[in-house]
Design a protein that fits this description.
Blueprint (H helix, E strand, L loop, with lengths): L3 H13 L6 E3 L5 E2 L6 E4 L3 H8 L3 H9 L3 E4 L2 H13 L9 H7 L8 H11 L23 H12 L3 H8 L17 H15 L7 E5 L5 H10 L2 E6 L2 H13 L6 E5 L10 E7 L10 H11 E14 L12 H6 L9 H10 L3 E7 L1 H17 L1 H7 L2 H19 L3 E9 L19
Length: 438
């Protein structure tokens, strides 16, 4: 096939009615498009067949994971440029409408000739097999049961602790850091986040802390070492729990810190003085969120505080059902759901909590993700060896795209401080609540 890149560029611009913002390089080594921009590399014609058989984001993701599609140049710039053309053409669009317009050429009589041309360029063939090693293994059964949630968590977290060490760095914290300045190190910013949470919870020696979704144990270790509390961390990941227990033993804190493989719905040894839930509530699901809030309320003593740190999506204009991101659902966080911060606050209040503070950390997460991507790229060969080429490519794409989503205000992240206020009404908070900044 002669000049595949030129034919694809012409086809895309004909259907989209706008020039492509990036350069294309096809499998026949032909190139087309604006010079000096990142290059979208279509390594195999199979990439086009993936899009034809599975239009939209999932087809693109499979092409990327399989290595059929790549970017030569700045990945952030490429994603940002494409998000203004293929992904988001139109003010009210948040999904792949531009790409859908291109693929709808197969069905629309007015653009059927373009659709036929796309089929010719893609070549004949059955649907390509998806990259099997990355497919989520959680399908079947009711959504967000303890058993299915455990399978979903295992898919994302039980991939080898060394892999996460290379991406997250020594802090081993897998949630938004708190940046005193952009020049801080990732470890300094993660320590600042853990300390901010402890101060918001007003932790004191002798108190009991429950950390829901404790990961590799960084929060319970920090709270016990720096604030003198006794802490219980719960996770559904066997690998996380083993890693956390080893860290706790090495720190000499096994008498005050315990990590369990346990669902929040199966935790019955309250009351606790404080509860932290950092980057865990995204796994709960809208159908279970009221139960989650009620369970945590019941585990707190009167006057106890909850710090809920959670990614938020923008509200839908029609308040419709949550629209699952197929790439994230299939390759990153199976069964994960994002809710607007207003809905989260409402659910916590309905459970009985008094919400006292909401702090938005959107820009902080963008900085965090860019550091994780840099870590992954620095340790790329080892990350591929520890996981697989597909998994490393999944992580690079989802973290880079997520960084841009936070930067462009498509999603946010918030710390919500809530209190189980006793009947007396004494919340225990200072009159100037932001004094916890130190």
């Amino acid at each position: 096939m002669a000049d595949a890149a030129g034919r694809l560029t012409a086809l895309a611009e004909q259907v989209l009615g706008a020039p492509l913002p990036v350069r294309l390089r096809a499998w026949d080594r032909s190139e087309s498009g604006p010079p000096g921009t990142p290059v979208l590399v279509i390594r195999r014609r199979r990439a086009l067949r993936r899009l034809l058989w599975k239009p939209g984001e999932l087809g693109l993701a499979r092409a990327w994971v399989a290595g059929d599609l790549d970017v030569d140049g700045d990945l952030y710039e490429a994603l940002d440029l494409l998000s203004g053309s293929l992904w988001e053409r139109g003010e009210d669009t948040t999904r792949t409408s531009g790409l859908t317009a291109l693929l709808s050429a197969l069905r629309d009589p007015g653009t059927r000739a373009a659709g036929i041309e796309l089929i010719k360029i893609a070549g004949p063939g059955l649907p390509p097999t998806p990259p099997p090693e990355e497919a989520a293994r959680t399908r079947g059964g009711r959504l967000h049961t303890p058993r299915r949630d455990k399978a979903a968590i295992s898919h994302h977290y039980d991939v080898g602790n060394t892999f996460y060490e290379r991406v997250l760095g020594p802090s081993m914290v897998y949630s938004c850091a708190y940046w005193e300045s952009p020049g801080s190190t990732l470890e300094e910013a993660q320590r600042a986040k853990l300390d901010l949470v402890c101060r918001k919870l007003a932790l004191e020696p002798g108190q009991r802390l429950l950390d829901v979704g404790c990961g590799w144990g960084s929060m319970v270790l920090h709270a016990a070492r720096e604030y003198g509390v006794s802490a219980v961390g719960i996770t559904l990941s066997e690998e996380q729990a083993a890693y956390a227990r080893k860290r706790i033993a090495e720190a000499g804190l096994a008498d005050r810190v315990e990590v369990r493989v346990q669902d929040y719905r199966e935790t019955f040894d309250g009351p606790f003085d404080a509860i932290s839930s950092i980057g865990m509530a995204e796994h709960v699901g809208s159908a279970r969120y009221a139960e989650y809030a009620a369970e945590l309320y019941g585990l707190l003593k009167p006057g106890g505080r909850l710090l809920n740190h959670q990614i938020a999506r923008r509200p839908l204009t029609d308040e419709g059902a949550y629209e699952v991101d197929e790439f994230i659902d299939r390759y990153v966080f199976p069964d994960g759901e994002l809710a607007p911060v207003g809905r989260t606050v409402g659910q916590l209040e309905r459970a009985g909590f008094e919400v006292r503070d909401v702090e938005a950390l959107r820009e902080h997460y963008a900085l965090t993700l860019r550091r994780w991507v840099a870590n992954l790229e620095t340790h790329w060969d080892e990350a591929v060896r520890l996981g697989s080429p597909g998994r490393a490519r999944v992580w690079r794409l989802y973290m880079a795209a997520s960084a841009l989503s936070f930067e462009r205000n498509r999603i946010g992240v918030n710390q919500v401080l809530a209190v189980r206020t006793p009947e007396s009404g004494a919340s225990g908070l200072p009159l100037r609540t932001r004094e916890w900044r130190g």
